[in-house]
């Protein structure tokens, strides 16, 4: 295989697909004596410039090297491991780890979902998360020790992707766990054996860190000379301010042992990589900060699979391992573009954000002026930078920041510097440019390779792209991949369709690599590919919708003079991802101010909500799971185990306060599975004459830390204390409404599958007391006929009066029996199965009717799309169904009475009335415009002429005419009056509004007077603002009482502007 070459004299493919190149071959290159900012050269590659000045590069072993000059040659990575790197596949590394610990008594357990069962955790971030309830003493251990390969997502690492060789958003964590079985000695011994014997890592390349006060761990490792004591920030794990905690030991691999051990810094990423972390969970931290030994000591470890693969496969970063690199290769093969096209694609990608107004910086000679020496040829430079985070806005952007990477340098050699330092133009001007291919490939490696794995596994676990929560993480990652793919020149789907989406082709590679970690991904391929295709193709449309939303907000603010704006800015930032600085900049251009202090207030409110959730998390760690009694009873006696006010734990709460109450047992259902929490009351009895001492109205119940119920409500009477006994009573009528709607939801899903096909699946639901909402995956709207069939089928099943059956069984047995599982939901080893025999069987923990007849009736209210490939049905059942039908019948009776027609004739009569109304409105609008124009005609003859340029001016209050009529009048006047002329009109159309319009002829505009700026300044006097073009502009206000004074000022200002001799 030949070495690749870079030459600025001819076009060159941007990305090679040859395996030897692996997309990272070109080191920092010299551009006629001036160097681009360097980036680390991958180990194991050499480069040199030949006699023609062309640069050649290749792997040191196995490939020919071009004639070398003075270019430095970097040695290849030294051999590691007992086996050849080609034999150490990622799958083999994973399998060896699991088999190693299985042979030592560990149970191999599957990876849990990326969507954790713990509601206090956003995404699964570590292998220990599925065992957290066991470590916290919330659940008993099922096995003494276990081993897993856990898929993980860490969103805080998104910004590190593209900067380091090891950070990723998606990664696999190999782990071994002991639940009171073995401890430090065994854990350390096995970790060392695994690393040195199983994986064959040379002992002289391994370093160990221990917590500075952990003498026990130090004594275990003491035979190793490469051991470091480190502080709590690095080597002490805690679950929070209180609770289980303990010291850590970490294993590091040394890429450069020849540098010696003196003053070695394990935090030096260029030399060391941490690959195995052992947490010794041996203490409980009390409220006073003191540590007490745990009765059951635990082990929690984590080994980064990608990191170990990087070591064993001897590649310079995680992205070039066989776990990720096939994705990069596929992307490279889809980006076969010329050097010139790559340049254009880069430019396009740099401008992908609609609101990025400025993308150019002037810089000094140190950065942007090239010289060949004290004298001789020289000239200015232009450099192109890629912005990894354009959403941060353009204000105060520093091109020297790690946010940017310089990838293309253009030197304009146009001067000769003389001895006295002066510059004279060269007779022959030259161009010298340089692009670092490794830098462009880095974008591909760090973003596409990483993010594609993340989005595929997230979608597989049921997270679909959206603008909130986990869905926003998926959407953000997808958009970064699309933006980067376009940058490097990917066009089309790779199957001949130039307008198609390319993400599905990349996802197929990820899915093919998924078999060993998550076999279910393959079975969900159709859903994953469809979701990615729809999201990519609608990406540009989404940007356009964001731009349209901002325009609408600004138009509304101008029309109603409703500014400064605040909540809307926060909505754009929090939901649509628009940086507040960009929103403020665009608003300023339109004459609208932004309340940045108000924005900060909204951000602080969000922070407080997050802090309150954290406080709840801390409190529930010391409280056992809540016993749920609500399947069999709507009332019970319980004990208060904890109280919170504004997210803070308290011992007692008085009348009038909002409170969150934790009980040991409860009949209240806590929101889960789409069903909302129960409402009802808590009573403290024992008052005089049998009176109640306290009454607490409960309006919501939520789960925290898996299975602890948090009852939210208001103290209506008396006070409540921790430790007190209470009587809990659920609102029976509301519970019955929830039961009817929940069972109806199951029937609806069966009807959907029957009518439109079994491939449709649930994507979410809401079961409320008065309605249900069912989201499902489907590619088109349902027809009226399909909706009628679905509704009819559900009502038919309700009429059969079928008795429901509920049972608890093993998960696999339930699946074998045909029970439907919610896509992306996590289930335990035992599950609750709700069956409507012969109709529906689902895994469900919600409350249901005993017999379908209790539902009474079912009516679909609406069907609509809510996201790409996701539809939503809203419906009512039970008492809500009866109320809905009765209300609609009452409306129809009234309508028939008003229109004096029978029910079957209402549609025709309404269409006739609407047509008559439209005609009348058009006639009224036309008459108003004609009246305004007639009034304007009389004003034209009274226009004032201003010297010395004979400018004809009309400034007038038009009374109560609306904005459209005012515009027509201004257009008539400016067309009637001879150039130069200026027309400023105002009106008060009612509802406390002011309308203003300014129309200037070309002659006035040439005098330097612009309608947009002029009318905006006048509108401020009326409590508003506005703008427009230099020759025509409109504005609004909310102080009609100020209109006369505003028009007088307008008259004075326009006269002064056009009467100046300099005009």
From TrEMBL:
Entry keywords, A to Z: Aminoacyl-tRNA synthetase, ATP-binding, Coiled coil, Cytoplasm, Ligase, Metal-binding, Mitochondrion, Nucleotide-binding, Protein biosynthesis, RNA-binding, tRNA-binding, Zinc
Keyword Repressor tagged: no
Single GO biological process annotation from the record: mitochondrial alanyl-tRNA aminoacylation
Coiled coil: 903-937
Positions annotated to bind Zn(2+): 742, 746, 844, 848
EC category name: ligase
Cofactor dependence: Zn(2+)
Pfam families (UniProt xref): DHHA1 (PF02272), tRNA-synt_2c (PF01411), tRNA_SAD (PF07973)
Reactions mediated catalytically: tRNA(Ala) + L-alanine + ATP = L-alanyl-tRNA(Ala) + AMP + diphosphate
Cofactor, free-text remark: Binds 1 zinc ion per subunit.
EC code: 6.1.1.7
GO cellular component, one term: mitochondrion
Chief place of localization: mitochondrion
Limits of the Alanyl-transfer RNA synthetases family profile domain: 88-887
Gene Ontology MF term list: alanine-tRNA ligase activity; aminoacyl-tRNA deacylase activity; ATP binding; tRNA binding; zinc ion binding
Places the protein is found: Mitochondrion; Cytoplasm
Domain of life: Eukaryota
Similarity comment: Belongs to the class-II aminoacyl-tRNA synthetase family. Alax-L subfamily.
PANTHER family: ALANINE--TRNA LIGASE, CYTOPLASMIC (PTHR11777:SF9), ALANYL-TRNA SYNTHETASE (PTHR11777)
Free-text domain note: Consists of three domains; the N-terminal catalytic domain, the editing domain and the C-terminal C-Ala domain. The editing domain removes incorrectly charged amino acids, while the C-Ala domain, along with tRNA(Ala), serves as a bridge to cooperatively bring together the editing and aminoacylation centers thus stimulating deacylation of misacylated tRNAs.
Entry function: Catalyzes the attachment of alanine to tRNA(Ala) in a two-step reaction: alanine is first activated by ATP to form Ala-AMP and then transferred to the acceptor end of tRNA(Ala). Also edits incorrectly charged tRNA(Ala) via its editing domain.
Subunit structure: Monomer.
Protein name per the record: Alanine--tRNA ligase
Native species: Eragrostis curvula (weeping love grass)
């Amino acid at each position: 295989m030949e070495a690749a070459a870079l030459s600025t004299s001819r076009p060159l493919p941007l990305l090679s697909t040859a395996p030897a190149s692996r997309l990272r071959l070109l080191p920092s290159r010299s551009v006629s004596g001036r160097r681009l900012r360097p980036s680390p050269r991958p180990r194991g590659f050499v480069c040199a410039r030949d006699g023609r000045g062309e640069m050649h590069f290749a792997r040191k072993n196995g490939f020919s090297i071009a004639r070398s000059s003075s270019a430095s040659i970097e040695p290849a990575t030294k051999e590691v491991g007992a086996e050849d790197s080609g034999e150490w596949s990622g799958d083999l590394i994973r399998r060896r780890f699991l088999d190693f610990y299985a042979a030592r008594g560990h149970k191999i357990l599957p990876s849990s979902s990326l969507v954790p069962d713990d509601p206090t955790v956003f995404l699964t971030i570590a292998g220990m998360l599925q065992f957290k309830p066991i470590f916290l003493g919330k659940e008993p251990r099922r096995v003494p020790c276990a081993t897993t390969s856990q898929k993980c997502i860490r969103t805080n690492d998104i910004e590190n992707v593209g900067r380091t060789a090891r950070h990723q958003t998606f990664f696999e964590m190999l782990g071994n766990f002991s639940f009171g079985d073995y401890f430090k000695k065994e854990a350390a011994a096995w970790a060392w054996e695994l690393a040195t014997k199983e994986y064959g890592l040379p002992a002289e390349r391994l370093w160990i860190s221990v917590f500075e006060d952990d003498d026990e761990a130090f004594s275990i490792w003491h035979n190793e000379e490469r051991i470091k004591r480190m502080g709590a920030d690095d080597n002490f794990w805690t679950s929070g301010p209180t609770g289980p905690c303990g010291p850590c030991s970490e294993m590091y691999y040394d890429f450069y042992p020849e540098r010696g051990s003196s003053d070695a810094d394990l935090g030096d990423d260029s030399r060391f990589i941490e690959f195995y972390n052992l947490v010794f969970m041996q203490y409980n931290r009390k409220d006073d900060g003191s540590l007490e030994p745990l009765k059951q000591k635990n082990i929690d470890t984590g080994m980064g699979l990608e990191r170990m693969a990087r070591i064993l496969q001897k590649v310079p970063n995680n992205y070039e391992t066989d776990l990720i690199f096939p994705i990069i290769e596929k992307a490279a093969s889809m980006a076969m573009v010329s050097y010139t096209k790559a340049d254009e694609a880069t430019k396009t990608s740099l401008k992908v954000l609609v609101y990025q107004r400025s993308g150019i910086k002037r810089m000094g000679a140190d950065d942007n002026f090239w010289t060949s020496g004290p004298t001789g040829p020289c000239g200015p430079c232009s450099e192109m930078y890629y912005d990894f985070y354009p959403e941060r806005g353009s204000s105060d952007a520093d091109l020297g920041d790690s946010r940017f990477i310089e990838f293309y340098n253009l030197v304009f050699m146009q001067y000769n510097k003389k001895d006295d330092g002066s510059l004279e133009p060269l007779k022959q001007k030259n161009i010298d440019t340089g692009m670092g291919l490794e830098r462009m490939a880095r974008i591909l490696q760090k973003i596409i390779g990483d993010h594609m794995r993340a989005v595929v596994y997230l979608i597989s676990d049921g997270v679909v792209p959206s603008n909130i929560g986990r869905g926003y993480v998926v959407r953000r990652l997808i958009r970064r991949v699309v933006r980067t793919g376009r940058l490097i020149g990917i066009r089309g789907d790779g199957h001949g369709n130039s307008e198609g989406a390319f993400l599905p082709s990349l996802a197929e590679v990820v899915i093919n690599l998924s078999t060993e970690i998550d076999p279910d991904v393959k079975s969900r391929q159709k859903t994953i590919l469809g979701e990615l295709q729809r999201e990519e193709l609608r990406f540009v449309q989404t940007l356009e919708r964001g731009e349209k939303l901002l325009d609408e907000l600004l138009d509304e603010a101008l029309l109603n003079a409703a500014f400064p704006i605040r909540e809307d800015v926060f909505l754009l930032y929090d939901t649509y991802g628009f940086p507040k600085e960009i929103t403020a900049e665009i608003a300023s251009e339109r004459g609208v101010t932004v309340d940045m202090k108000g924005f900060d207030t909204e951000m602080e409110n969000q922070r407080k909500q997050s802090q309150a959730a954290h406080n709840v998390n801390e409190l529930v760690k010391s409280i056992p799971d809540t016993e749920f009694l609500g399947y069999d009873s709507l009332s019970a006696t319980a004990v208060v185990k904890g109280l919170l006010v504004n997210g803070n734990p308290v011992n007692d709460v008085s009348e009038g306060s909002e409170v969150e109450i934790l009980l040991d047992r409860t009949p209240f259902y806590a929101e889960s599975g789409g069903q909302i929490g129960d409402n009802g009351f808590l009573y403290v009895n024992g008052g005089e004459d049998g009176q109640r001492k306290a009454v607490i109205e409960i309006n919501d119940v939520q789960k925290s830390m898996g299975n602890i119920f948090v009852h939210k409500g208001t103290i209506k009477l008396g006070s409540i204390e921790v430790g007190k006994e209470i009587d809990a009573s659920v609102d029976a009528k509301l519970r019955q409404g929830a039961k009817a709607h929940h069972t109806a939801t199951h029937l609806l899903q069966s009807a959907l599958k029957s009518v439109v096909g079994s491939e449709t699946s649930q994507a979410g639901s809401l079961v409320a007391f008065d309605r249900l909402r069912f989201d499902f995956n489907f590619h088109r709207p349902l027809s009226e006929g399909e909706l009628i069939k679905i509704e009819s089928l559900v009502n038919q099943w309700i009429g059969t009066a079928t008795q429901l059956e509920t049972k608890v069984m093993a998960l696999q047995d339930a699946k074998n029996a045909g029970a439907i599982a919610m896509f992306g939901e996590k289930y335990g080893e035992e599950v609750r199965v709700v069956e409507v025999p012969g109709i529906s069987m689902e895994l469900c923990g919600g409350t249901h009717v005993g017999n379908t007849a209790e539902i009474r009736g079912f009516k679909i209210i609406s069907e609509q799309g809510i996201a790409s490939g996701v539809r939503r049905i809203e419906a009512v059942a039970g008492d809500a169904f009866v109320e809905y039908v009765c209300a609609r019948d009452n409306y129809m009776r009234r309508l028939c009475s008003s229109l004096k027609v029978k029910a079957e004739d209402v549609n025709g009569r309404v269409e006739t009335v609407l047509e008559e109304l439209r005609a009348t409105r058009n006639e009224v609008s036309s008459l108003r415009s004609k009246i305004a124009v007639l009034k304007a005609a009389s004003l034209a003859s009274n226009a004032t002429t201003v010297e010395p340029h004979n400018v004809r001016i009309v400034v007038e209050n038009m009374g109560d005419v609306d904005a459209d009529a005012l515009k027509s009048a201004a257009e008539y006047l400016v067309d009637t009056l001879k150039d130069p002329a200026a027309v400023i009109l105002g009106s008060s159309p009612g509802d406390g509004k002011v309308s203003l319009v300014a129309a200037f002829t070309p002659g006035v505009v040439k005098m330097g007077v612009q309608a947009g700026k002029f009318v905006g300044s006048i509108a401020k006097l009326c409590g508003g603002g506005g703008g427009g073009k230099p020759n025509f502009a409109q504005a609004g206000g909310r102080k009609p009482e100020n209109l006369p004074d505003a028009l007088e000022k307008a008259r004075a200002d326009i006269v002064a502007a056009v009467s100046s001799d300099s005009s």
